[in-house]
């Protein structure tokens, strides 16, 4: 997607489009106040840019020399830019004149997303996939954690008045969930089968739940009994359109959407999925939409400005109601049985006042993503780690989970069970460590760091025959072995597939199985060479694998 430069009013939060940069996925900005130069980095082309602040037009300085640039900060004292490699998890210093990048060190603390430099204290800040604020040593990339942000779960919301049920889709697990409007507690229904469901709306006449898959840009129907999604048809809007809000008007049987990119209201044909523009809303990033039959108005939430707006369904024109007070408010639904407007912010259900736009937290949704799995054959126990750092066991027949205890480490990436010694191993942030976990209490104990160069280890499996612990390095794309006494990793060989997120070993055929996030395929991996072979595409995202052997 071609990025646009915007200016933001610091008093109101309002964003104003300046113009297209001309490069895809500009994922970091930094300003040199001395020269008046705005720099940017394009993840789409891996180049450093200068950007005209009057027109938005970008000009390439040159190639950075590394991939997936994310975040940018300028140090005026050292006359250098800082940037991070998204997948490798490495901090770079970048020459603003030549664009040449020089590696500083690996960032121990999850996937890096943003950078900022405090010129008063010469402090470099970063936020990571652990959803924490950190400082980075600009000379070594050493991490100091300041505090946690929280987690995101739902980006969409819809309401069924007949059953007083709020519906949402978990963006991490891609499951349909039913929400209690009074407490915020969520119950998982089942997998939708589509990757990025960003809008939901319930048709009360035909009792159909509609959604929009942002990845394929098509309208889908979702079975509320099973969660399964079925494609209706493509929205057929311009290539850069993104429909992140959806609402149904039962008085006219009309399905409306909000285009996140253009800021326009659209109508969607529920039979074909075809979208057509109604008119500009006047607010950017309408990520939640719902219809109020009492006022015959649509309500939307603008994540760009934190504003709740009312929208004329005939013209698309939006009118500000007020600041919600929640920066990440996404998904809106009018709970007509109670006359209340609801939204989602991270892992919270929020009640929104329709008169002034203010939000009030109701409660936590009650579920978070499971990061990884491991299985103990002797006791037939399946272990899992939640993204918040809890050890749980999962009933393999019902899916019900039981809390064992807090692991004490953030962002547990992968787990494996050693049946020879009865030890549960895991890899965890922020130091990319191997840890052992007490299966009774959940308490984790550090063994040691896997070592520089490997970054995040997102897959882990134990071969009892070789007494070897294997891992998959996201940063290098390598299969590695890990010393269980020191935690140190050693490369076996390149897998040949991007971002292998999970790993399991099958002793009956002496093969490792993994799932590639990059290609969304199940693969086999040769434990001697590391070479991967495709088995086939998976319907779902698989972030944990565990062998159950008889």
Keywords for this entry:
Neuraminidase; 4-stranded antiparallel sheet; 50 strands; 550 residues; mainly beta
Summary?
By secondary structure, this protein is an all-beta fold.
> Could you tell me how far the N terminus lies from the C terminus, measured between alpha carbons in angstroms?
48 Å
Number of individual domains: 3
Helix content: under 10%
Structural class: mainly beta
Shape: globular
Secondary structure elements and pairings:
Elements: E1 2-8, E2 15-24, E3 26-32, E4 37-42, E5 47-51, E6 58-63, E7 69-75, E8 80-85, E9 90-94, E10 101-106, E11 112-118, E12 123-128, E13 132-136, E14 143-148, E15 158-160, E16 165-169, E17 175-179, E18 186-191, E19 197-203, E20 208-213, E21 218-222, E22 229-234, E23 243-249, E24 254-259, E25 264-268, E26 275-280, E27 286-292, E28 297-302, E29 307-311, E30 318-323, E31 329-335, E32 340-345, E33 348-352, E34 359-364, E35 370-376, E36 381-386, E37 390-394, E38 401-406, E39 412-418, E40 423-428, E41 433-437, E42 444-449, E43 457-463, E44 468-473, E45 478-482, E46 489-494, E47 500-506, E48 511-516, E49 521-525, E50 532-537
Antiparallel strand pairs: 1-2, 3-4, 4-5, 5-6, 7-8, 8-9, 9-10, 11-12, 12-13, 13-14, 15-16, 16-17, 17-18, 19-20, 20-21, 21-22, 23-24, 24-25, 25-26, 27-28, 28-29, 29-30, 31-32, 32-33, 33-34, 35-36, 36-37, 37-38, 39-40, 40-41, 41-42, 43-44, 44-45, 45-46, 47-48, 48-49, 49-50
């Amino acid at each position: 997607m071609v990025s646009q430069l915007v200016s933001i009013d610091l008093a109101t939060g309002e964003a104003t489009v300046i113009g297209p940069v001309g490069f895809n996925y500009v994922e970091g900005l930094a300003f040199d106040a001395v020269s008046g130069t705005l720099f940017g980095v394009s993840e789409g082309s891996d180049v450093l840019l200068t950007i005209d602040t009057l027109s938005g037009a970008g000009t390439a300085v040159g190639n950075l020399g590394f991939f997936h640039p994310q975040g940018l900060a300028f140090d005026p004292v050292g006359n250098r830019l800082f940037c991070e490699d998204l997948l490798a998890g490495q901090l770079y210093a970048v020459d603003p004149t030549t664009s040449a990048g020089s590696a500083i060190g690996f960032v121990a603390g999850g996937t890096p997303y943003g950078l900022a430099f405090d010129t008063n204290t010469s402090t470099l800040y970063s936020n990571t996939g652990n959803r924490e604020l950190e400082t980075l040593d600009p000379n070594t990339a050493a991490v100091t954690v300041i505090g946690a942000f929280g987690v995101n779960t739902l980006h969409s919301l819809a309401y069924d008045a007949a059953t007083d049920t709020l519906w949402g889709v978990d963006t991490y697990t891609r499951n349909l969930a039913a929400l209690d409007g009074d407490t915020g507690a969520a119950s998982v229904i089942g997998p939708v089968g589509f990757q990025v469901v960003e809008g939901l709306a319930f048709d009360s006449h035909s009792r159909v739940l509609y959604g929009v898959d942002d990845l394929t840009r098509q309208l889908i129907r979702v079975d509320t009994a099973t969660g399964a999604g079925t494609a209706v048809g493509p929205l057929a809007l311009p290539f850069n359109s993104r429909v992140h809000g959806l609402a149904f008007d039962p008085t006219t049987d009309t399905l409306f959407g909000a285009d996140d990119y253009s800021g326009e209201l659209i109508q969607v044909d529920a039979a074909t999925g075809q979208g057509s523009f109604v008119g500009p809303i006047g607010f950017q990033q309408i990520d939640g939409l719902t219809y109020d039959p009492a006022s015959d108005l649509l309500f939307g939430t603008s994540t760009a400005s934190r504003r709740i707006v009312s929208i004329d369904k005939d013209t698309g024109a939006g009118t500000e109601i007020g600041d919600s007070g929640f920066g990440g408010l996404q998904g809106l639904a009018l709970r007509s049985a109670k006359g209340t407007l609801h939204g989602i912010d991270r892992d919270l259900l929020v009640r929104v006042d329709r008169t002034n736009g203010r939000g009030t937290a109701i409660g936590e949704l009650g579920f978070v993503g499971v990061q990884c799995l491991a299985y103990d054959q002797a006791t037939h126990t399946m272990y899992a780690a939640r993204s918040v750092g809890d050890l749980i066991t999962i009933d393999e027949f019902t899916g019900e989970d039981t809390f064992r205890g807090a692991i004490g480490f953030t962002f547990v990436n992968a787990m494996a069970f050693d049946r020879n010694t009865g030890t549960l191993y895991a890899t965890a942030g922020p130091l990319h460590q191997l840890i052992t976990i007490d299966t009774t209490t959940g308490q984790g104990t550090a063994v040691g760091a896997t070592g520089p160069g490997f970054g995040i280890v997102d897959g882990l499996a134990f071969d009892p025959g070789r007494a070897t612990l294997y891992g998959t390095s996201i940063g290098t794309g390598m299969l590695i072995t890990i010393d269980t006494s020191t935690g140190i990793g050693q490369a076996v060989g390149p897998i040949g597939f991007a971002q292998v997120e999970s790993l399991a070993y099958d002793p009956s055929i002496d093969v490792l199985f993994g799932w590639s996030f990059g290609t969304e395929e199940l693969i086999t991996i040769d434990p001697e060479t590391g070479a991967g072979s495709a088995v086939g595409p998976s319907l779902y995202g698989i972030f944990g694998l565990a062998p159950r052997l008889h």
